């Protein structure tokens, strides 16, 4: 972000609420809206590199605006902590695809921020070390793409933002038949065998369709690929994976040791 002239402000955020969504829905929504209220109190938007956080914050804003009873309860809880949240403007009708992004706090994933706020043309101008045109598969992350009526992020069936941002670096993003499918991470804790089967199938397909490695747009997807391949010893199916910030940062001329200190990057750019 510094290389792009963007100043980040660290706020005392709590968890986004995604891990608790299946166990206590109200807690998950409150967690998301509390973070929105914190950002609003500082007059800031929210930027996250995680698709799960992005999706959950969008869900929180959506349910807060469309369900009055839940909104009233959350407002009481926020007031106990000295917070409040304004939500959408009075002129805006709820139920539209992009409603959560039009409120006083905009929720931005790293990809949408780079694409909409920085812009592909500006990014191209800032590339100082184009990467070799190696064929790569893209792992989008489910929670940013679906449901579109809540996230409004990109076409969930034929997403283009991630592909364009990857190609800007010099790499060649392939049309991968499983790029919009889940990596398996959301069920890894409760259904480990099934999560591993999903991951293995994706790795085999990516390799068969010509990918030299996989780029992830979600921190949880990156964890799933790294953990799954290492712990399950999928050596015969191993495909290196790397998160998009490392790829972009390298093309911007930032040394890998600064992009990922203390972590071994499985790809040499």
Discrete helix count:
12
User: What is the string of helix and strand elements?
Assistant: HEHHEHHEHHHEHEHEHH
Helix content: 40-55%
CATH fold annotation of the largest domain: Rossmann fold
Quote the beta fraction. Answer: 5-15%
Total tally of structural domains: 2
How far apart lie the N and C ends? Answer: 20 Å
DSSP strand count: 6
- Biggest sheet, in brief? 4 strands, parallel
| CATH class membership of the largest domain | Alpha Beta
Q: How does the overall form come out from the CA principal axes?
A: globular
What is the SS-derived class?
A: alpha/beta
Radius of gyration: 19 Å
Describe this structure in words.
The protein is α/β, with parallel strands linked by helices. It folds into 2 domains: 2-108, Glutathione S-transferase Yfyf (Class Pi), Chain A, domain 2; 119-259, Rossmann fold (3-Layer(aba) Sandwich). It is 45% helix and 7% strand. It has a 4-stranded parallel beta sheet with strand order 4-3-5-6, sandwiched between helices. Strands 1-2 form a two-stranded parallel ribbon. The longest helix has 17 residues, at 25-41. Residues 89-103 have low confidence and may be disordered.
